[in-house]
Every structure is written in C-alpha cells, then in structure tokens.
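User: I've been trying to design a sequence by hand for this structure and keep getting stuck. Would you show me what you'd pick, starting by listing the structure so we're on the same page?

Assistant: Good idea, let's start from the same input. This is the structure you sent:
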C-alpha cells in the first residue's frame, strides 16, 4: 500500500527489497522495477539513492493483537525495525518515512523506538506522531506510528516540518473501495455453511 500511495503522490519507484517471492513479483508487476531481495544483504553503495525511502518492516512483534508475541527486537522479525537504521544511514536519502504499529511505543517502554530515533538523529531531524489512519483517508480505523525523517543537509525547513492536519472530508469506509459483486471472480467468493452457522449461533 505504501508503494501504491507513493506512486499516486507522484513518486517514481527505482527499486525495492523483499524476500517473499509472491510480494517480489507483485512489486515488479506494479512498478516495473527490480526487487533486490533481502534488505539486509545489499551493498547500497552500488545502487542509486532514492530521494524518499519508505521502508516497511514486519510489525508482528510490536502488535497490540492478542496473537502477537510483543517481543520487540527480540522477536523473529522485530529486530528489523531497529536494524533498518543501518542501510538508511548508509544510503542517506533526503527523506525517510517509517511506519509501524502504534503499540511499538509501549514495547519495552518504547526502547526500540528510542533506538531508531537516536540512531537516525545523527543525520536526520526525526519527527514522529501516532496517527489514526482513518483521519487521513484510509478506510480502516487503525493507529500507526509515523516517523518522518528529513536529512539535516536540507536545513531549517527540515527541522521545522509539521505533520499536515487532517480534514473531516477525507474520511471513508470500506464501501468506498469495495468492488461490485459482479466484478468479484467466482473463485474468490467465500462459501459458508449457513445451517452450521445458525446452529452455532443458537448455542
């Protein structure tokens, strides 16, 4: 979704990184650019530096969900949130936009968030805010931690950045993006045994 939003905003992707083969193919089809594979095995000195970098790390270990382990950087994928500062500082794009579940500020009393902020603050002005995405035009009502990091070489404008205010007219619902039934392929319809559901409900 970050990639789609960036393209709609007028940005032109130049490359991506991903280890899931299905997502790698989706990226290539969507952007017509190369997917380089694992984010953490690349030599970023050998590739073009984007003006805006939009990393998206796995959020499971920071999620408020009851199914989430809430292990932060000690989890199977949670370490990536902190580790992403290394390729960022190697590349030094003009701007970096980091998105993570809002609950990250509660994991280990916000230790991982502080690590990211401290590391990037060496070269960037780091502005962060917890936002309700519905207020900014998303169809869901989730909260997200957004970190806008602007390189200090950009000067005072980067230091004075402020998050844009939301407008009530931006609020949407799932109905606004849902396809008409006639457009849904047959194999994607969900089949439910109505009798079974009714029996379970009455129990």
């Amino acid at each position: 979704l970050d990639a789609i939003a960036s393209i709609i905003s007028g940005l032109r992707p130049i490359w991506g990184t991903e280890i899931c083969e299905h997502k790698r193919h989706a990226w290539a089809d969507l952007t017509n650019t190369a997917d380089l594979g694992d984010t953490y095995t690349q030599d970023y000195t050998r590739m073009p530096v984007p003006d805006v970098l939009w990393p998206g790390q796995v959020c499971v270990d920071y999620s408020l969900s009851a199914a989430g382990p809430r292990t932060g950087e000690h989890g199977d994928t949670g370490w990536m949130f902190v580790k992403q500062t290394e390729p960022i500082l190697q590349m030094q794009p003009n701007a970096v936009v980091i998105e993570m579940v809002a609950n990250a500020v509660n994991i280990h009393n916000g230790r991982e968030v502080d690590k990211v902020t401290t590391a990037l603050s060496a070269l960037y002005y780091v502005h962060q805010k917890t936002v309700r995405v519905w207020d900014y035009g998303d169809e869901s009502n989730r909260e997200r931690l957004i970190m806008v990091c602007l390189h200090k070489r950009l000067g005072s404008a980067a230091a004075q950045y402020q998050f844009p205010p939301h407008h009530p007219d931006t609020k949407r619902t799932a109905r606004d993006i849902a396809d008409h039934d006639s457009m849904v392929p047959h194999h994607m319809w969900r089949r439910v045994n109505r009798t079974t559901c009714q029996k379970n409900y009455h129990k």
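That's my pick for every position. To get oriented when you compare it with your attempt: Helices lie at 2-8, 21-31, 79-83, 85-91, 111-120, 156-159, 194-202. The chain has seven helices and four strands.
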